[in-house]
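Discussion board: Methods & Data

I've been asked by a reviewer to show the raw model output for two of the constructs in my manuscript, not just the figures. I'm not sure how much to include, so I'm pasting the format here to get opinions. Each protein appears as its amino acid sequence followed by a line of discrete structure tokens. Is this the kind of thing reviewers expect to see in a supplement, or should I convert it first? Here is construct A:
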Amino acid sequence: MASKPESRVALHIPALGWRLKAILPVAGVLLGGLLIFLWVTLSLERPERQAVIAVAAAGGVAICGVVLVVLAVLIERPLRELQQKIARVQDGDLSVRVSFSRRRDEIGELGRHFNDMVGQLVSSREEIERLHRTQMSRAEHLATLGELAAGLAHEIRNPLAGIAGVIEVIGRDIPEGSPSREVLKDVQQEVLHIKNVLSELLDYARPRPPQIMAADLNASVEHAVALARQQALSRPIEIRFATAENLSHVEHDAAQIQQVMLNLLLNALQAIPGAGSIRVAVEQRGDDVVITVADSGRGIAPDNLASIFRPFFTTKGQGTGLGLSLARRIIEDHGGRIEVESQPGAGTKFTVQLPLQRGSAIVE
């Protein structure tokens, strides 16, 4: 038969108050001195010893009283004030400050630290509120943009399809070698460009939620690298890819990550005017996986570096300025982040950081 565990009774020992803690050493010293003095006085057998003992006892009590009063003024009042101000901070009042922070002792230093802490809390709350307002403004902007994009797609795509059909019919009637054929090709290219702009605008304004599942991230990135290599076949650009060894499956949307990586790789190809190289690497860092895309291109000007993720910002003549903005949104929807480092003439490096696992992921 299994023995029952022994029951233990928890003893609650009341904590000693600070007054008692402060007075006990003083009282102990005074009592010891008084006993020694009493012993010496009794051994001398003087007749005035009772009066001397009474005076000494009264002096000891007076000293203890003075010590308590001094401690109450120097310690108790600041501690009570600090407790009250902490309670107000817990209730959300960050305008409180302690009044004893000007003292030039340890209590004053404690007060200064408290005031600094509350000041940092105020700054943090203001920053959080600012970020919240920014996110709300961005959400409203995106909602408006989504409605605008849907209306544009409906109002422009149908007439544009008709224009493209008419141009194709006209092209059949133009004789070979006519200068009008070159103009017609330019018109067809512009029509195609408008279609691409509309498609990217719709993708940015109304992106689909990521379909998260555990998959091989090395394979997802390698697929984008293979597509980029096809684009660079006729150019003296080398694309090197280093996989992460022994990398477990990462929860991500493979199609969206391929879209992000292909966008970064095509940007890198466009940034290299002649011969050059692009290095793509996947590596695990703790609970995250990091993908880097570094090129040897012309780099990004410092004035433009802070704006490259903004919608519609582009330094390319044919770009829409939505590719990097959409890439950042996709990465943020995966719970990650994307960063960029660049120097003019020294190339650009994009860093994508993704978590290995997400709580809302669907594992297959």
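Construct B, same format:
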Amino acid sequence: MKPARLGRLAVLGAAVALAVPAVAQANEVTKWNEIAVNTINAKAPLTSAPPAGAVFVAMVQGAVYGAVNAVDRHGRPYLVDRSYPKASANAAAATAAFRVLDSLFSATDHAALQAAYDASLLAIPNGASKEQGIEVGEMAADAMLAEGHDSRTVIGCTFGSGLPGVWQPLAGPSGPLCDPTPWVGNAKPFVVNSPSQFRTAGPYSLGSPEYAADLAEVKSLGKIDSATRTDDQTHVAAYWQTNPAANYNAIARRFVDQFSLDVTDSARLFAMLDLSAADAIINTWNDKYYWNFWRPITAIRVTDPTWTPLFDPSLPMAIGGIGPLITPPYPEHPSGATAYASASMHALASFFGTDEMTFYATSSRFPIDPTQPRERRYFSRFSDLTNEILEARIWAGIHFRNADVQAANLGREVEHYIQTQYFAFVH
């Protein structure tokens, strides 16, 4: 499918997405996207936590796009300047993804990755096209790895001054709870110019009526035994404590199947999605440590020492699914989950040329009953998902509204910049 047809299909897709079962497509882009997400998410938090995962998934999808775009040139060159129209796009995609993943995780995953890559190549007819595709994929992967996006570093907790408004780590079972991924705030972006290019306006002043209103809202709605939060809001808050890379890339893979996207369009879809998400998260993490603002739990306990947010390890797992729900161990402003969702959903809307699309998301949280499937939540607009997450972080008791609103704006601005700088040139 060529991009010019996507806008017309978006309208049809909104009507039939729930009625017509998807038919899986033979596509090396989607195959390796799933391999990449699963491989990255299986790692320790330094690599798998959502901020870091966004960077590594983008490295894979950026390399895949650079390789496929060199074969079937529909946009500005990315990583590979020359065109190779006779090369196999599937061989280029599989090779680019394999080479990036194998370089990042060879010590633990080489055998599994090599087996998957061998299977990919076996399914592609031998010949000059396949060999040239492999060569193009290697070029794209090598160029991506040379960019220096992987700057993983273990950094200890940064303790604030203890003054009002300043973030402080919370106590955990074996010491302070620390951010495993502060390095993301200074990682090299993929398309935007710097980690601080999209600086937000920052938190409200502690003495402002706007801050007082946000504080009162989260104090009421975000309390673990809130009398103002509904049961559905409690459920939604827990549902969205999910892995965004797994969730949003799965949505994109279902769109590939639903619309029978070819390799070229699939590579562009995942590049738009994951490069936007990664650059939004890099800017968000830089912004977090720039403002270093306290969480609601710290702010509210100044006057109410017993206040506990919904996201607390004591939350019954029947509400939250398997695994504890906690206040995230890094500064509050802006919201990472909301920025990630906003950039991702705006990227999908840009690709299809419409905000109106019927689709579902599946939480990565396992249900208590292992015989039950993971819950699906259905949406009729991409923006509806972002808006639900924006509210969910307040219901969870972990964010002020201002942090969510500014994060949604940051994600939108990053995606718009990437769209106009690279993907608007698709012909």
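Answer (T.O., handling editor elsewhere):
This is acceptable in a supplement if you add a one-line summary per construct. For B, something like: Confidence is low (pLDDT under 50) at residues 1-24.
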